[in-house]
Amino acid sequence: MHTCILLALEDYHATASQSAVRIVPHLRDSKKDDVEAASAAIYLLKDVQVQAIFGPQMSTQTDFVIDIGRRARVPIISPVTSPLLTVKEHPYFIRGALPSSSQTKVIAAIVKNFNWREVVVIYEDSTDGAAIVPHLTDALLEIGTLVSYRSVISPSANDDQILRELYKLNTMQTRVFIVHLQPFLASRLFLKAKEAGMMRSGYAWIITDLLTSLLDSVDHSVIESSMQGVLGIKPYVPRTNERINFTKRWRRRFRQEYPDMDPVELKVFGLWAYDGITSLAEAVEKVGGTGIPKFKKADTRENLTDLDALGTSELGSLLLDSMQNITLKTGLCGDFRIVDGELQPSPYQIVNVIGKAERTIGFWTENDGISCKLKTIGKTAAKCNNKQLGTIIWPGGSTIVPRGWEIPTSGKKLRVGVPVKGGLEEFIKVEIDPKTQAVTATGFCADVFKEVIQALPYAVPYEFIPFQIPDSATSPDNDLSFYKASFKKYDAIIGDVTISANRSKYVDFTLPFTESGISAVVPVKDDDRKSAWIFVKPLKSDLWITTGAFFVFIGFVVWVLEHRVNKEFRGPKRKQVGMIFWFSFSTLVFAHRERVTSNFTRFVLIVWVFVVLVLTSSYTASLTSMLTVQQLQPTITNLNDLIKNGEYVGYQKGSFVKGILKRMNFESSKFRSYSTLEEYNDALSRGSKNGGVGAIVDELPYLRLFLNKYCRKYIMVGPTYKTAGFGFVFSKGSPLVPDVSRAVLKVMEGESMNNIIQKWFGDETDCPEQDGMAIKSDSLTLDSFKGLFLIAGVSAGSALLVFFLIFLYQNREILTTDDPVWQKLSAIAKAFDEEKDNSNSKSEKPEANESQTATLFAASEASPEYLPDLPLQSPEIRNSDGRGASPAAEGFSTTEHGTPVHETITGTFEEK
């Protein structure tokens, strides 16, 4: 940087005019000490009265110097990279280098590109080293990656301490390491990492620009032996002719300035220094004039400190304003832009350490993210092949992307906890060999887990470890405490473990591999076909009552409309009442034989006969269904019925269902727990009154298994309360969870899942009478016939209303009298009860005479001698009662024309 500063001033003076302001450098050494840096700054400001200070580079030193510069109103242009120092908090501070926080997005993009879920950050135990960690953690969290561990390496740590820390990292699952160390400390770290076996296949190492930009200062033997396959990032510097020519000049000048130092390469920090001094020179030209104003001295008083005696610069504020927003489009490091006092980020270069140096594999920009080709320059990474990154050689010489984690400690297996349960072995069962103590897990959940592990894109060795799961029904806190503490012993837990919100606070679940939901199973009722009263079940009670009421109502309406004009509806009171019931109910089977004469009655009967037709058809269909198809009806159709009836409720021992039942307002005294399907069956068979339960409430997988075994005795009733189903359990933040979840989906979509279900649960279609859901009653309800009854009621009521209006009009003379109201009502009732004279005689006489004729012809057939020639007419015969039905005596005559029989027949034919 020293050499670059001198060359920048020489280039400025060589191109500036004779009248331009000359810039004179005054160099001081901070000696890597904060106090020395502050002392040097005070000397330059007080004694030399400099108008600007470039440097220092360390953050702690810069923190002192920028405070001093603020008091003297002199801009401090520093290449410090620590993000702890901000331009907003220090108005006279101008950053001449990229802060280390600017590279965190690049690192996060690389991690996201390879889908790594956890990383370990290794950084130096210093202010500058720790400053990047919060920014890096935030950038990783934005892509869903966790910093599982932060490893702090002291600059004074010996090799044994470094090796112990690496062994500690090796016992963890994470295999992705981000290193933010100075070159001298990083060299020792990678040497020990090679010794600890952490530079082999399966590991991933990313180094920040703090090391990548200074990689040529690392011993080549360290790079070749211990850093092969490492990924690094550094600011991208375009390879231009200006830079190439400047590099040649810099090398010559560097050898002159430092002849005893080993050859080194020009770093980006030197290029930033050159561009920073060039920008300062341009700012000086903008504000410079015929003369440079001096410092404004402080008041001359006794006992002034060095800080009080500094004075203030009259030029510093002008330089600051010019430097805070300045751009060098032809800078050696590309576009050197300072906006609001901050150097703006440039593209980053991603490299892969191969051999003695690094190879470019891609780039990163704020707009385009990771790409194998930098669009603005057109530079292509080696063997890009249109991928996001070029071909990468990982540690161990592998070209396979590390998955980012491994089973802790080489040689160990994934420790899989398996619960030991007393029942429901179809789901999970643990067996321990008494001789070898080998643990074997069988059952539906175990088989699914084995298939999922085989479906992973990599091998995961595992071993089963049995454990006793606490009874969460007794104490839900015990259940949560168990899951919170269990992963000190286990890496995963399998079995019929339900995913729940409370448990997910302490562990991570994979995607579920079973259906979800909680429901109830209740006994079915006896076969209704054996009931002696099955004929009343096709219709609900409300429909029966409504139908009966309408039968009576229609009968009454017909009687009202007919009894004044129709002899069939007259007679004694008992006969009229009987006729009301008889006539309407006879329409049920269309057996009514009474003739009606009123058009109102005919209108009412047309509508009512249609209603009866629909009712009888529906009743017949429903009864036929009940008699021919077996119906599985539940004893209880809703869980609320259990609460109302005070029934006992059963659940599986150790299940969280008890908590759900409490939230549904069930009494705890009504709970009974069971462990096996046989206990479920026994409890339901006995019922609540005999020491059993009225229903079993459990998760759907258990209930499905139970119904497959006892499908003809029990039925599932709703509603179904949603749950997340069964899932495999892993420690919080386990990198295995995403891969296992994807494998679960793969297994569920394949044929193997059906085979596992068939193996442990059998064919669910073996019980055709049971589909797992409660069958609602087939009885017809009133709601289905409201429209029909409404039409029948309106039509009958309308006919009745019109009839009464006409009747009142015909008897209006009664209503217009001055008699009391009760006399009027009595008169109206008497008029209503009187038979109305009608002209129906002609229509009824033939019917009566036909009867007489038939009788007489029958007598004639028995005595043929009484059949003389009969005249066509006989005026002596007449109808005496007006209805064509004469008494026997009136059918006879004493005239000489013939015998009484002859007269009767003659009279009959005369009527004909």
TrEMBL record:
Ionotropic glutamate receptor C-terminal domain: residues covered: 413-763
UniProt KW keywords: Disulfide bond, Glycoprotein, Ion channel, Ion transport, Ligand-gated ion channel, Membrane, Receptor, Signal, Transmembrane, Transmembrane helix, Transport
Organism superkingdom: Eukaryota
Chain positions covered by the region annotation Disordered: 833-912
UniProt keyword Acetylation present: no
MF terms (GO), sorted A to Z: ligand-gated monoatomic ion channel activity
SS bonds (residue pairs): C711-C767
PANTHER family per record: OS06G0188250 PROTEIN, OS09G0428600 PROTEIN
Oligomer status and interactors: May form heteromers.
Record's protein name: Glutamate receptor
Organism: Anisodus acutangulus
